[in-house]
Amino acid sequence: MALRTRITDALKQAMKDKDAERLSTLRLINAAIKDKDIDARATGNDEGVSEAEVLAILGKMAKQRLESARAYEEGGRLDLAERERGEITIIEEYLPRQLNADETAAAVEAAIADISAESIRDMGKVIGALKAQYTGQMDFGKVGPMVKDRLS
C-alpha cells in the first residue's frame, strides 16, 4: 500500500477514534506532503512528490521534533517535550526501520564498492547512491563523515 494511502487511511481512522493527538500529527504530515506537492507542480511536475520524497519529509519532521524535544527538556518544559516525543512515535510508524551502526557501515562499504569510489571526489556519488537506496533508513548527517573517513 502506498505511503500516502496509509497516512490518509490512518487520518480517517484517527477522526473516527477521536484521537486528537494522532489526528493533529497526521494532519501536519499531510500538510507537509501537500506543500511539497504544490512546490513540485510549480516546477512542472504534475504528479507531485514521490515515495522517496515523502520518506524524506517524514524523516525531516521526526528530526525537527527530536531537536524541539531536546530544547524543551533543556528549558524545563517536560510537558512540551513529551508531546514532541509522542509526535515522533506517530511519524516513525510510517518510516522504514532505521539501520543500526553495523548495517550502515556495511551499506557504506557496499556503495563504495559498487561505485568503485577511490577518493574524496567520489563522495557525492556514494552519498547519492545511498540516498537512492536507503532514504529514510539512515541518518545522512552521520553517514557523510563515515563516507569521508573511508575515502580519505
Spell out the key features of this protein.
single chain; 152 residues; mainly alpha; Hypothetical Protein Yqey, Chain: A, domain1; Arc Repressor Mutant, subunit A; 7 helices; 0% strand; globular
Q: What this model shows, in words?
A:
This protein is mainly α and 152 residues long. It folds into 2 domains: 3-92, Hypothetical Protein Yqey, Chain: A, domain1, CATH 1.10.1510; 101-151, Orthogonal Bundle (Arc Repressor Mutant, subunit A). Helix content is 76%, strand content 0%. The protein has 7 helices and no strands. The N and C termini lie far apart (42 Å). The mean pLDDT is 88.
Topology:
Blueprint: H1 3-17, H2 20-42, H3 51-74, H4 78-92, H5 101-115, H6 123-134, H7 140-151
